[in-house]
Amino acid sequence: MRIVVLQLLILALFLLVVPAIVGSLFAFREKGGQGLIFRWVSGQFLLWAGFQAICVPLILRQQSFRWLVRLFLGYTAAMVLLAGALWMFRRKKARALPPQVPEGQARKARERGPGALLWLVFWGLLLFQLVQAVRLVYEDSDDAYYVAVASIAESSDTMFRVLPYTGGQTMLDARHGLAPFSVWMAFLARVSGMRPVLLAQTVLPVALIAMAYGIYYLFSVQLFPEKGGQQPLFLIFSEILVLFGNYSVYTTEVFLIGRSRQGKASLGSIVFPFVLLIALMLLKKLQEREKIPVGYYLLLAAAAAAGCLCSTMGAMLTCIMVGIVGLLTAVFYRKWKVMLLLAACCTPCILYGLLYLILE
How far, in Å, CA of 280 to CA of 285, rounded? Predict the structure, then answer.
């Protein structure tokens, strides 16, 4: 029992605490850009982008899995130290400013009444979904490949060199080798000591589903900035759509609740909504004629790299989404420079797409 508790604490450190610390690098001044949820989500995307940049070259060079673990732990430590140094700089700078009323106190005062009841309903439905996602977990046919890849990488110290179906040696499969989301699961299994199958079917669904709803919450902040009852009502309707979205095995709702451990499910349920969120925040900046911080573009580039981590389809689909946003900025706001910067954010997708064509 003590071992299980220790494993869960380590996973909580890598899935919750560390991303929240790293995400402070992208703390923006405007509404919705300073909260803990935004830092947690953006920090996880930065870690995913770093994992993709480290893992793919090692896979192509046929390096061992332990080298990936060491390098990514070093990258994570560097990001944490950088976030800590930036926090100390901001704190020192904030001492020279006049004190302000904490946003949390004002929010609590505004949310008393019917809004508080709606928030209780939201948290109750979210807890129900998290429990059901673990209690009713099932083995999808794709788990025979994706979860097996994670188990083999963790146990054999190789990456995409053993065929999951037979256990025999195989050549690199570019389609899966360039999108090593399963290897990320193997990394979490290695550092925590938990078996990859148990990790994929119990812990990851809770973390990834909560991350998806964190993005939905950030959408509600952007769409309903007054923080009345509209935000929890928006989230409750989102939960209802997810609960009753099992009209086909291919719906986004089914992928979120039942298959979030698979990269393509996280691509559609987490990465794409986050790209739309950053695009919404960027377009609001343009509409208000405000300067766009560089952090927006860096975070969008990190989301593009995370899309490549989840699936090779993410390289193409993320480029299409960002391209549509760039076209809208050029047509409606006449901001050609912004369109070029958005195109630069697609650089990870373009590089991995070209690499896929070369390897195939």
Answer: 9
